[in-house]
Every structure is written in structure tokens, then in C-alpha cells.
Amino acid sequence: MTRAYETKRVASVATQIDEQPGFRLYLPSFHSDGSLSGFVVGNIVIHELLGITWSEQINSRQFGIKVTTLTGKLSSIHT
Known about the structure:
three-stranded antiparallel sheet, 2 helices, about 80 residues
């Protein structure tokens, strides 16, 4: 959050979301006088993002892309 505030730009932090790897995005929002109003916070869960963007390629024998959970179990991805 500090980096987002100081640069006045979106910043990301790697994190765990529901025990899955992901990123938390912080976008600062400012009042017209320049004072901080708050933050817009977004969470991106990597396996969900992959499921949406590469749904046909994930776990495909043709492409060889495999997604596993943190416990090592193969994850089935659905959109």
C-alpha cells in the first residue's frame, strides 16, 4: 500500500488467497485536494486467471501446461 500511495499508481503484492497463490492489487484514490481518499483493492487468484485466459490449454496434452494446487494435486480448471 505504501508503494501505491507514494507513486500514486497501482502496486501489487504476491500473497495467498484461500490457500492459493495470487496477487493483491492496490490502487490509491485521491480527493481533488490531493489527500488520500482510500484504496481500491483487487485480488487475482492465479489458477482462476489461468482458467479464464487459457481454459482450453490448461491440463491439455497438446500444450503440456499443468496446473497443480499447493498440495500437488492436479487442478481441473473450468470457465
